Amino acid sequence: MARSSSIHELLPLAQSTDLATNEQLGPVRTAALFALFAALLVASHAPLLRLPYFWDEAGYYIPAARDLLSGSLIPYSTPSNAHPPLVLGWLALNWKIFGCRPIVTRCAMLLLAAFALLGFFRLARSGANTTVAAASTLLTAIYPVFFAQSSLAQVDLPAAGLIFWGLDSYMRRLRRPAIVWFALAALAKETAILVPLALFAWELLGPRFPRMRSFGVAKTSTRSALLLLIPAIPLALWYGYHYARTGFVFGNPEFFRYNVQGTMRPLRIFLALLLRTWQTFGYLNLYLLTLACILAMRNPPLEDEAGPRKRIDVSVQVSFLAVTVVYLLALSVLGGAVLARYMLPVVPLVILVCVSTVWRRLRLWKLIIAIVTLAFVAGLFINPPYGFSPEDNLAYCDYIRLHQQAETFLEQKYSKARVLTAWPASDELTHPYLGYVEKPFQVVRTEDFTAEQLLSAADARAQFDVALAFSTKYQPLHSLFDRWRLWQRWKSEYFGYHRDLTPAAAASVLGGNLVYVKYYHGQWVAIIEVVKIEEARLSSHTASR
């Protein structure tokens, strides 16, 4: 009896639903579910498994994992961003066993995505029931950002998966496993440390509110709450090691300036908070589920044979809210790029609460889930009427295929040319292991394809023979927000937004001929053969004669 009291003191969850004694999945069912999730993910991603690496994969994670494969925890072929090495180690291990190929990378990441879905299913089942868990897991798996990130060699989704496993243990009052999972999550992506920090704050502050006590939230000791700070120790050790090897704690100076120093402006923080809130509750058709949840709250709970349908316990929901609020606030202050993938640890929690509410209060809940499912599937293929990152749905595949075709054309027609281009195409052309070219090109780099950058490049066009230009920002044909000039100015000032010149305009500025251009779903790529000043003069002289 004394032991039971101490367990309940460790975790201030409601006593009305004893999560600690809920029937848990046995090892056989757990293994079977993991195999099912992995098989479905691999099958649904089958056409994408051989795609070359995309954007941040090519620019950081793949080079860093290759460096780790050679024995270095600190990247040396690319400037270190100080990201912990857990996921990179997983990739290096798979490459060591199966070979260093894109298909191996994609399958290795899909296994981590299956593990994440399994952890989320367990969490949803612990907090709600099997029906809600199954519907929530389905929606999470096909939510465009989650689906697109599932096979990409990036760290946010694996960190989210470890967080789900940690939250499941936490809700079951299994403190030690929760601490281990949270520590692993922080070693996958440093921002995952926000979850135990949020729960630490919740444990200390939650019971102080009378309304929370009325929902059964038990008071916990400070000593017990302090255990949630243990996951910060391995992360601190990693940063100490990184500092000892590089002289920098949080990555190279440019990375720190972009993601920390450059974000500390009040208006930018406020605007980033608005964007983060949209990404958490409305992005890529998620608003349909959020609205359904809000409308469902107007109805009383449905009655089953056993009585009113049960909700996720309020204390559990508020702990989810604490994690969500901390993520929203922290990632509105930190991070130069306001990428939707950074919110993957909290968006599934929103999906879970919304699905539970719809299931509990609406008789047509199956129809609602079906409509949201179709909306998420549509969001995978149909780009939204506003600017977004191509990595958030299957638009990243369009980017890869456009660049594959253009760079194959370069190899066939201009194999020895010096190429002007911007990142990440500069890496695609210089690193054959990324999957775009067989031999490296000599590259001259430009920041982007704005008029200012291309005018500067035109002054030095003797240094390159052709230009590979492409859309560095997705721009919908008819944007909902184009008319808001103030928003355009804010985006340019605070979030690095710019407009690339069209292929024809870029060719005109560079003084070259457009020899290749291709458009697809709002993205484009072009190859411009540059006419040298001497050639232009000779051509002009010949024409005059």
- Helix tally equals 25
Approximately what portion of the residues adopt beta-strand conformation? Answer: 5-15%
Q: Let me know the largest β-sheet.
A: 5 strands, mixed
Mean pLDDT level = 90
The N- and C-terminal alpha carbons lie at a distance of 105 Å
Whole-number tally of structural domains: 2
Radius of gyration equals 26 Å
Low-confidence runs: 1-18, 534-544
Please provide a written account of the structure.
This protein is of the alpha/beta class and about 550 residues long. The protein has two domains: about 1-390, no CATH class; about 395-545, no CATH class. About 60% of the residues lie in helices and about 5% in strands. The protein has helices at about 1-10, 25-45, 55-70, 85-100, 100-125, 130-140, 145-150, 155-170, 175-190, 195-205, 210-215, 220-225, 230-245, 255-260, 265-280, 285-295, 315-335, 345-360, 365-380, 395-415, 425-430, 450-460, 485-495, 505-510, 535-545; strands at about 305, 305-310, 420, 440-445, 465-470, 510-520, 525-530. It has a five-stranded mixed β-sheet with strand order 4-3-5-7-6, with helices on both faces. The chain has a two-stranded antiparallel ribbon with strand order 1-2. The chain is globular and about 80 Å long. It starts with a helix and ends with a helix.
Describe what is shown at a glance:
The chain has 25 helices and seven strands.
List its traits.
2 domains; alpha/beta; two-stranded antiparallel ribbon; about 550 residues; about 5% strand; single chain; 25 helices; 5-stranded mixed β-sheet
